[in-house]
Design goal:
Layout: E1 2-3, H1 12-21, E2 27-28, H2 29-36, H3 40-52, E3 56-58, E4 63-66, H4 68-73, H5 80-91, H6 95-105, H7 110-118, E5 122-123, H8 127-140, H9 155-163, H10 173-184, H11 186-191, H12 194-205, H13 211-233, H14 247-256, H15 262-280, H16 294-317
Parallel strand pairs: 1-5
Antiparallel strand pairs: 2-4, 3-4
Length: 322
Amino acid sequence: MNYKLPAREVTASLIMDVVERCCHDGANIDSLVQYTNKSKPYVVSAIDAGCLLKMLDVQENKTWRTSKDCAEILTNTLSKQTKLVVFKKWLFAWTPFILFLQYIQIGDDINTAARKIASRFSFNKKKEDISKLLFTWAKNCKIMNAKQELLIPNSSQKYQEILGGIEQDVIDASQARMYLAQELGAEIFSWLKPDEIQELENGLMKIQEAPRESAHSLGIALEDVLKRIYVDLLGFDAQDLTKKNTISQVAECLRSKEYIHAKQHHLVLAQGHIRNMASHGKEVESMEKWELTSMGAKGQLFFTLALIKSLFRYAKYQEHLY
């Protein structure tokens, strides 16, 4: 994956000023310079950062507009603190930043963390510049202090508490992504697409309050991962999957190519049944309704993460891992 980082080290505050101005009708470079009272090079870098984090979309005639999801939040004039909360939400949706924090959490300094993420993604800047930029954003959002120390709880401890039954309102989406990165590992987490990570995050965050929705999201994530293993990882024709609309059908395609072990195949079929249980509620033949509990949703989360890791490692390295 290639990422264009901003040429200058711009703050979250400046980026959000640019994003705010680009709401609704969009803006050109001159209006953004006037609005922010910053030089053109810094405004251009703020635009690049906004595009990097998918907060801005490029329009015709060299103008930019705030992305739809972001614009819906920025409907009113927001305080500086609230704008930083919005920035943090989009920053934590950017996979390299999650891995940057994950490496720091296990004891790496910011330069080592930057070097490691630079080995997994293609950036247009040196690792020293990457570390400075990401550290600046982490400080802006109060994720790290000036001593380069993390100010957020350890993701493993946090989610052991959450999965043990803590109320849903303590769950933080940023911690959810760090937990997923930790459990799946850097290679798999960096390979996943944003939509797949989002479904896994939904599955984790809805365990307590909406276990049926949780299981449904986890099923979507697994089906998408199976399809991408078939097409992106193994290089088979995507047309083979055109009429494959269930987890079981996609698994059959992988099985026919011998890129899924018989035991994995049975596990995937079980996942397909659980997804149907969550999605449809009632059995087709008997019309009996299944109720999904938070315990079932927790088990589904662990099952899904373990299976994604197992399928990926088997397809890529022929490892027998579960």
